[in-house]
Amino acid sequence: MSERTVTDAPAGATPNDGPAPRALTDGELSRLLSRQRFGVLASVRSTGHPHLSTVLHEWSAEERVLRISSTADRLKVRQLRRDPHVALHVNGPDVWSFAVAEGEAEIVDPADDAPAGEQPLPDRRVVILVRVARLYGTALDVPSGN
What we know:
The protein is mainly β. The chain has helices at about 25-35, 75-80; strands at about 20-25, 40-45, 50-60, 65-70, 85-90, 100-110, 125-140.
């Protein structure tokens, strides 16, 4: 393995320059969302600051919809009822790749369809349904070392 020196680098480059990240295609993004089950959901606090939460999700490429299960009393659910803007970040198979799905969330609560007077369970489940308006991500194709 040879080491590069500054004199080996093109003009304006540094010894640490490497390949630039490339944008993932819609197919690659969809596969990444399907294969990676965990992600980090970002919602907006009442102060305007982001709130991050690790979640388990399901991706439907045909519908361009994310489904996330939660309980009705969670902070993220309360925040999404107030401000539905959301983003889900998913790591790729290495530290250099990721996908982000942005959209607006709708809280689907089965208790809304329950008969009158029926008490919900203490950990009442809801579905956070995210209609994805923007999907993006990158990968850094690093050649195997010599």
